[in-house]
Amino acid sequence: MMARRPILALSVIALLTGASSRASAQGGMAGMDHSMHRMGPEIVIPKGAIYTKADVEFMQGMIAHHAQAIVMSRLAEANGANPQVLKLSRKIDQSQVPEIQIMQQWLRRHEQFAPDTASWHSMRMDGMLSDDEIKALSTSKGVEFDRLFLVGMIKHHEGAIKMVDELFKSPGAGQEVDANIFANDVVSAQTAEIGIMRSLLAKLPPK
């Protein structure tokens, strides 16, 4: 366990700071849009496709959303989270890393731009933490960290659920089989985790 901590710390620092040179290079090549909700070239949907622009935007945005959740989760071990919060943070990390890969593969399969995990620096989707909130979380310790993490991740998960809701409200969106299954899985998993986090938050000592 001790041998993992320096590696873990370095990986968290890398995620927090981001690969700025790589992001800049991608922005130059792909015409990165630094708006709150889009990254990459203009989305073009082929005629006859069974997915929509909203599906593509959802996948691209959720990659950034998941990437920030992973950053938050990887702070737990180094910042002295209690065992239950640490267990949950590891679950979020271990589940959302492969989900990012699933979304990237979906986008590439449909010949759409697939953001990398540095995208959370330039995209702010529903529920994502601000830079100041991330900084506060990264510098907190023990019970203070637990409280900020749980409050922040509840907000984060609620934002993801809202993104799914907005997807299904968009005409024709969420009908492609893989996109539909993935979006519904996000709601199921994150709704369950919100319940766990609210329970953990209620057990923390008062401020």
From TrEMBL:
Residues 55-201 form the DUF305 domain. The keyword DNA-binding does not apply. Keywords: Signal. Residues 1-25 form the signal peptide. PANTHER family: SLL0788 PROTEIN. This is DUF305 domain-containing protein. It comes from Gemmatimonas groenlandica.
